[in-house]
Amino acid sequence: KTDPAWLPDQAFRAIGTRRVVVCGGDGPVVRTVVDEVTRACARYGGRVWHGTAGSPDADGADLLLVLTDLDCLPGEAAAVRAEIAPGQPLGKEGYALARPAGATVVVADGPAGLLYGLFHVARLGEAAFDGWRPLEVHRPASARRMLDHWDNIDVHPVMGQVERGYAGGSIFWRAGEPRDLHRVREYGRLLAAIGVNAVAVNNVNVHATEARLLTDRLGDVAAIADVLRPFGIRTHLSVSFASPMVLGGLPTADPLDPRVREWWSSAVADVYATIPDFGGFVVKADSEGQPGPFGYGRTHADGANALAAALSDHGGVVHWRAFVYNHRQDWRDRTTDRARAAYDHFAPLDGQFADNVILQVKYGPIDFQTREPVSPVIAAMPSTSVAVELQVTQEYTGQQRHVCYLGPLWASILRFRPWGPDGRAVASVAGDGGGLVAVSNVGDDPFWTGHPLAQANLYAFGRLAWDPFLDPLDVLDEWISLTFAPCPSVLRSALHEIMDSSWQVYESYTAPLGVGFMVNPGSHYGPGVDGYEYTPWGTYHFADRDGVGVDRTRASGTGYTGQYPAPWRDVYESVASCPDELLLFFHHVPYSHVLRSGLPLIQHIYDTHFDGVTKVVEMRRRWAEIADFVNAARHARVAQLLDEQVRCAQEWRDQINAYFFRKSGIPDARGRHIH
Ligand code: GCU
User: Fold this and answer.
1) What is the pLDDT of residues 266-291, one digit of tens each?
2) Which of 114, 221, 292, 561 has the most crowded Cβ, counting Cβ within 10 A?
3) Host domain of residue 33
4) Residue 556 CB-half CA count within 13 A
């Protein structure tokens, strides 16, 4: 049986005990609203009336869910709609919520808005029906809130079925064939409840079988799209840039070759004939061995625009990833800096992309590390739609074996102001442009995400994509309330103690102060301090007997700081003003360098690593204490994973501390044992 995650029956109790009126027409999304309410009422004894026209018996209703373009607008709903400022449309996905008198009213101008309004009422629970509520209008900050699955149809010999997946196999395919999509339906429901409206179903590294999803296996995609559509979700596909060759038999994939352009047009026309609301393509080109326009001497604008041209008549978009760097660099070459690569490739192309191209930029310049500065590409493309890519799957943040609630990390990125305190935030750049995208952490594991507490990350992604200025700890509290409903306060406080700062705790026992990596090559799990130091991957820390860190200054380093607008180009340039948590990302400093805490760098490394393990041991103790309040299977799974987290954190502590002690020869000022 699949874990209900944040939608246990209890989450609908407040709705299910009431008299509900749905005036909502008849599309698939409205049917989802009606089904949800009907199921809740059947379980808890409430009553539901659903109609499309005429005058419903709204008298005595406790909850009205109303689509405003119908002629069955009951008086209360009409009054709520009238209160919304003219010229401030709710949009396709927005809704208004109020409780003017005896009834709670949700009005929306489109079916998706009605669905999101229903889930809002579920989140409020009994509070939605308590007393008077003023009008609240809710609209998503970004029109595109997307999850990318890195799923393969086949099991890849090295990467497994889900690349960087830590939750079992794919929910879409098994043994090379489409699965029963029952779980995909449940997934769609979970995603609708958090406002996600787009899903790309397959890995950005497109292997031979998966390339065929565009052509002879399009039926697989259509079946998924049919299941997700009633939840307001559009389906997207990762495609190979070389498709015209590997699928079409052409001798070239040159984006300016007329045969290639013709091939894309006709392939796309077939896709839309099968899936009329298809979302579009995700493309990883010239990246880590994937084919791309460079092979033909063309730019990434040429490449992206060729696919965009094929999609544009149908309303589709291309998510073109900016993750382009030299993964075969010579580690001896100190002039090449992987952090610079995306900006160097893409900033000169600003203004050259077609309107339906979205440049998909990882939040940091390297690769989803626990701590990175915000990518300078986000501020460098004013004439391009930019989507910010986050990683919900915990590739570098504990692989769903460690508790690591990522809401605070994402909030810090989304609130970052690339042009300084008076400028716009990253969230607003994404909101006006391509929106937010994240790599999903879901698989066929009964808990969806392997670690049951990793569900909170998926939840937080959706909620922050909808409203990036929500407090991530409030979002966590919301998740706790729903998932553990009815949640006793002892459990709530224990979960907060375990999860609130779990990202900072993870950071404290892994790679220090933004230096990144130091992981085992390939798997990216567990400590491997020099694992990448002499490799071609461009991820170095340069530790020697005197100090550690990467000099990315203009004055003496790679010049990366110059990719930021003021004030950050100067804040990061100087050791004195660079935030400590990013110090080793931007500077190579001696072990004796004194941090703002007053501690020398080396002592900070020792202290945080000892401390981090102590905190993980404490997490495990807290979890053991609340066994009586948590479902036994869920409790056991987390307990087992906390054992692994303690083991792995100790390993990190001992390897990092030993490494830096041996390099520096400086003993721990507090005399603790270092191996
Ligand atoms: C990381 C990850 C790869 C993935 C890549 C990407 O490098 O390790 O597995 O393919 O990111 O985002 O494309």
Assistant:
1) 999 999 999 999 999 999 999 999 99
2) 114
3) 9-138
4) 8
